[in-house]
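Internal QA ticket QA-208
Title: Verify multi-chain structure generation after dependency bump
Assignee: T.L.

Test input:
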Amino acid sequence: MRNSGAMLILTFIAILTLQAAGVSPPGKPRLTSCRSPEKETFTCWWEPGGDGGLPTTYALYYHLENSETVYECPDYRTAGENSCFFNKNDTSLWVNYNITVVASNALGKNISDPVEVDVVYIVQPNTPEHVTAVVVHDEQGPFVRVSWEKPRTADTRSGWITLLYQLRVKQEKDKEWEEYNAGMQKYYNVFSLHPDKEYMVQVRCKPDHGFWSEWTQTTYVKMPDYITRERSLWIMITIFFVFIVLILTWTLNVKRNSVKLCLLPAVPGPKIKGFDKQLLKSGKSEEVFNTLVIQGFPPTTDYDNLLVEYLEVYDNEEQELVLDGKDLSEDCMKSKSPSDIDSGRGSCDSRTLLLEKCMDGREGSGSNQHQYSQHGETRWASTESSESQGPEPGSPESANGRGKTWPVVFSSPKPQPHHHYPVGAAKPAYHSVPEILNHLSPHAMPSNYHQLNHQDIPQQEHRFSKPACRHSQSYNQFNLDGVDTPAPGVPPSPSLEYVEVQRVNPENMLLLRPLSDPNREPEGSDCTREDYSKVKEVTSNNILLLQRAMSHQCVDDYSQADQCTTQQPPHPCKPAVHQSNSGMPQEAIRVMGNGYVDSTVLMPSY
Amino acid sequence: FGLSLPAVAVLLVALLCLDPHCRVGSAPICAHGPSGCHIPSLADLFDRVIQHSARMHSLSNDLHSEFEQYFLPSKNHIGKIYRKCHTSNILTPNGKDNAQKLAREELTEVILKLLMAWRDPLFQLHQSMAHQQDFNSFSSNKALEMGDMAHELRKGVEKVAEKMRVLGMLGNSVTGLSAAEAMLPLSDSGEAMSDYELLYCFRRDSNKVQNYLKILKCRIVPEHDC
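Actual output:
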């Protein structure tokens, strides 16, 4: 008792001393793996656990399942350090091996954990051998044929072991391998490799139930440089499309005009007569705009005079307002239609109005009768023309807008490009006779003669008649030479007075007489209602502008317009005009249907 | 083997009908007549049979690993197998040399014995797996398929053996065609084996069968894959 106790204590002290000295029993070894390369032998490896500072020996012991007999490892050397090799005689398949490793040194031993192994399930073959990769040239393109042999130790010939192969390919620079399963065959064709590149090939194998072998050593193969079918196809497609594009471009080029028309239809540009784009491009705006300038437009000095004058003329307050304030064209147009009768309406076409204004201006501008400038006339023409869209151009009411003047119808002596006055270029088929300034009084002889010039007479010099109202001035013309003029303050008579054309004298003068003349000869007077025309204006040069008078009356007053001298435009017709109705042939002015006077009638037929 | 009477009769009839022109294969495709049908050669039969056995073994392998994974987490293999497999009575070669030493007939016989021994246990296994709720239907179906495969394989091997005999490769000394004993999966102690044990044992036996068949094939028809 005491001895054992003492022994124990001594052992304990010894161990402590030994541990202090750094030696100990061995650590526990551990079996790492057991492998069989061909299902006929197998090897187990273990890992020592630490020798404890003392030389340690290891021993492997095993026993088969359902058997208690323990055997020791038959071969510690063949497989190397810390291994145990079981040869064919010691290997039994389909039997569990219970294997342990014992480490022992001077101080003790240590036993590893047991491991159960069935050899059939730990088969890991050796690597395949003799791997070759050869480039094979085919009509489809070159490919690589990889071939190899089975590992030497594996007996596939007797069917004892069945191997499945696998290979992998990559370029040097690639990260990932491309793997292919070859099954049980010992060759494989690799396609789709890039030309002119070097590839690495490796092969491994596996039994039908077991572990994969290690990869073989790398085999290198270089692909030749060739054009793939795919690439040549793309080249052909590219060429084809380039060809198509070229053809399309050429076609477009040939047909570019029609294409341009189709894609970019012409946008009508502004057409300004006289506007020269080239000049504009050249950058000289003055020249461009100069071409636009109409000679004689706008009217200059006389224009001002005209304006001034016309501002003064008014019939009554309303009319003045009408005249001054509004767009006269509308007003006049509205008020005046060719068929309209302006009897006492006080519109701009009112005779009384005209009368008034002309009276007013008479004194002031007696000397200026002749001051009808071309500008003014043209001005009027243009105003008329510009507003001639409404009532027909022949109407005096039209085109009265701007200048607050008596509307007048001109016929331009020559076609002006900027007049789109319908009558402009052609010989008008009408006259218009401005309304005759007239007075009620039969003795208003001074006032009522005009010179009428047939517009149709080509020989006549066509000049612009005076603007309509210059009526004041025209009035002046009538009222020359001490004619008894009615007082300026003659109140405007609301009624209109019409002039009857009595005859045309040889000098191409129309002799007029007022209709209100009680002495009026009924000689077939064209006092048919519709046959009277108003004399609008007398121009300086034998032009009497007639206006169709749709008046129903050959009404109350008329004055006889007798002979007038034609020489001097400013000269009004002499009072002698009204003297007699000396049997001058009445020339009827046949009125055309639309209000125009038929000028043919007025042809001198005497 | 003890052949039952009907089996003997069938075999006798087959033998009587035997001649090279007679159809051995009974595949329904060959109903049209000799011209349109391909008579499987022995090599083809062997291939078919080997494929069967491979499929059977892989099924058993899957089931066994499922079992191990879900029902036996412990890696401790000690005492895992408490009992022997019921087929341990059948002498089977445990190495290549031993297997090659066996004659064809014996080898064929061993195969048939093994397959026969597993007929009923597999059926039991499927039944017990289907009833237990631990298994999902997938496993249960695998067990069923495994059983059917074993049955088919046995039939196939019998056909192969017959063909071999016809071809004169098998001597008359073969008794392998006698029906193998249907064995009950009873351990020595008489207790029924558990499902896991059955799976474990069958996995091993199916591997044996596959191996033996391959050896047989490469011995008899070594042209392909040998």
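Spot checks passed. Chain A touches chain B at residues 39-40, 65-66, 88, 91-96, 98, 114-116, 118, 120, 155-160, 162, 184, 208-209 (CB under 8 Å).
Status: verified.
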